[in-house]
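Collaborator request log, item 7. Partner lab (contact: R.S.) asked for a structural prediction of Ribonuclease HII to inform their binding assays.
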Amino acid sequence: MARGRQTAGSADVNGLRAAAADGFGALDFSRERALMARGILPVAGADEVGRGPLAGPVVAAAVVLDPAHVPAGLNDSKKLTAKRREALYAEICATAEVAVSLAPPARIDRDNIRQATLWALAQAVAGLPRPPAMLLVDGNDPPEAACAVEAIVGGDGLVASIAAASIVAKVVRDRLMVQLGAAFPVYGFERHMGYGTALHAAALRAHGPCRHHRQSFAPVRAQQMKLFGSRD
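Returned to partner:
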């Protein structure tokens, strides 16, 4: 897939990016409305959750919001309570076009965390019911997509569609980690969501890693070497 080469109508990539910049400010739906006013639609937002943890997948989501039903209170998922995220997740899924993709630990270990994350983002975008004409994505390292792409640093706190994607990705990943916590209770996944907390480090020392840990991450690899020795 060629990054940002396909466009909607007669607009070129520079025009799409200029349209995306209109209305830049506090978190709202103004970027998307500016694009749609130029006939560029659908407009999708994408984000991922879970790059930093020692266990569990990276989860990416892509969302096309309905302009007539933009949920109130959208924000960066990290700035919302779990209860508020769940409520917004339900509203987003009921009114928007949503797709989710997971990059499991095996892919992360094989490809590295950056490539696995970009793959998950691209898969989520490709899974949308309608191919977007423009993709707005959080950060500064966008995935390849069969449409124009605009990377926005801090986009999950600025752009409604990206914020919605961040909420979907966060809720999906947290639910998965709770399930892993029930299946592997010695690790406490439901408490730390796979991040490198003191509780998680103590569980790794006591029990070693399980198949849901990222073996290529240094703290996990160190415990693996203590149990089985170096393979070099």
